[in-house]
Design brief:
It is a single chain. With 220 residues, the chain is mainly α. 83% of the residues lie in helices and 0% in strands. It starts with a helix and ends with a helix.
């Protein structure tokens, strides 16, 4: 693949969410390890494009919080995800904004929940920048280090993709276990009751923004 085309493809596949790009990122790392591409530029493009996508999702949810919340609440699965993510953003703040990026669908859930809650803009951008830098380094680094260690591009790609799948499976298991514990911790509520509570809790988050987020924004 021509190198300028590779850079453009990396930008196009990391800007929007839910676009499968693991194989491309690993391949970019392998090419960088063999000297066919410039590693710092690859990392800057991947992290910068992903950060731009995150910020656009956050700003859209912040600006159109009502319609976004209505769209989320139409699906029980999205409703639970919003509730689960919103609770942890309010509880843990910036560390969770960073960590949620590495959970399945966490990029979308984190950006939308932060926007709907009107989480301070500067803090969100900082958290998303740190998360995307770590994600880009990890994703491309698997291919780069795998190629350097294995000495064979095909072996390196296979090993790197295998590690990515294991990490994704572990993240899914952690997320599932955390949600199950949260449901059991609320006596007398089932799936529907919990999601209704989450909706109310999210609305309280908007109220907290009016009273408490001003000081958080000033501190940021």
């Amino acid at each position: 693949m021509d190198v300028p085309a590779l850079y453009g493809l990396l930008a196009l596949t990391t800007l929007p969410p839910l676009v499968p790009n693991s194989a491309l990122l690993v391949s970019a790392g392998v090419l960088a390890s063999e000297g066919h591409a410039f590693l710092p530029l690859i990392l800057a493009i991947v992290a910068g494009s992903a950060l731009l996508g995150d910020v656009l999702m956050y700003l859209a949810a912040r600006r159109f919080g009502g319609p976004v919340r209505s769209w989320i609440l139409r699906s029980p699965r999205r409703r639970v995800a919003l509730d689960w993510t919103s609770r942890r953003i309010r509880r843990y703040g910036l560390p969770f904004v960073i960590a949620v990026r590495f959970l399945p669908s966490g990029r979308i859930a984190g950006a939308l929940a932060a926007g709907v809650l009107r989480y301070p803009r500067r803090k969100y951008v900082i958290g998303a920048a740190v998360a995307e830098t770590l994600w880009a380094t990890y994703s491309v680094g698997l291919g780069y280090l795998g190629s350097a260690a294995a000495g064979n591009p095909l072996y390196a790609a296979g090993i790197s993709l295998g590690v990515s799948c294991i990490v994704a499976a572990a993240g899914t298991a952690v997320q599932w276990a955390s949600r199950r514990r949260a449901l059991r911790a609320e006596p007398g509520t089932g799936g529907d009751g919990d999601t209704r509570h989450g909706d109310g809790d999210t609305r309280r988050g908007d109220g907290e923004e009016g009273s408490g987020q001003a000081s958080s924004t000033a501190a940021a």
